[in-house]
Amino acid sequence: MINTKNLNNKKKMGLTPQERKQKVASLREEHEDYFQTEAIINALYIPKMAYRPTGKDELHVSFFPSEFEKGEDIYTEFVSIDYDTEDPKRTLYYHKHNPHWQEEYEIITSNSGFQRHIIPVSELKVINDVTSRGKAIIDFANPDLPNPDESTDTAPLLSNAELINALSEINATLNKLINVIQKK
């Protein structure tokens, strides 16, 4: 016979520290290429729940004082209380260290007595997500575009059709940038 009382108690207790550490390490793997490429080898990566605190209009994340006391920039993504990703795009966010965090970020106390500082999600910078990883948004080395500095001809470099095509490509790139910015 299964002791459901113990199962229910385990569920209420949440993850063990070892389980949490393993889940965070697994989540971090998705972003490791970014950290390596940007030479941020020991990035402070702390996945967090995004939630709407009572009396607030927008989503927030909360950090413990000990996390801010490290004095480092923080990289995060949104997860559930059980550290399961809540974003299918696995968006990586960046929070630049604020040396005035104690004065500037509102402090809240949980029902269990833990104090945390809350930050609006709008203050986080979107770094990238699975749809933008490994892709250059603008290809500056495109050999199909003429270099105006190498032309001695005074005639237009592009025909009207070529100009319209180039402007369409610019428009598509700008629309992609707008979508990335609006996903904050």
| Topology as a string of helices (H) and strands (E) | HHHEEHEEHEEEH
Count of domain modules: 2
Straight-line distance between termini: 50 Å
Number of helices: 6
Return the structural class: alpha+beta
- Rounded mean pLDDT score: 82
Explain what this protein looks like in three dimensions.
The chain is of the alpha+beta class and 184 residues long. It has two domains: 4-128, no CATH class; 148-182. It contains six helices and seven strands; from the N terminus they run αααββαββαβββα. The strands form two sheets. Strands 1-3-4-7 form a four-stranded mixed β-sheet, with no helix packed on it. A three-stranded antiparallel β-sheet has the order 2-6-5. A hairpin with a 5-residue loop joins β5 (107-109) and β6 (115-120). It is elongated, with a radius of gyration of 23 Å. 12% of the residues are buried. Residues 1-11 and 136-141 have low confidence and may be disordered.
Produce a short descriptive summary:
The chain is α+β, with helices and mostly antiparallel strands and 184 residues long. It contains six helices and seven strands; from the N terminus they run αααββαββαβββα.
Features:
184 residues; alpha+beta; 2 domains; four-stranded mixed sheet; three-stranded antiparallel sheet; 6 helices; 7 strands
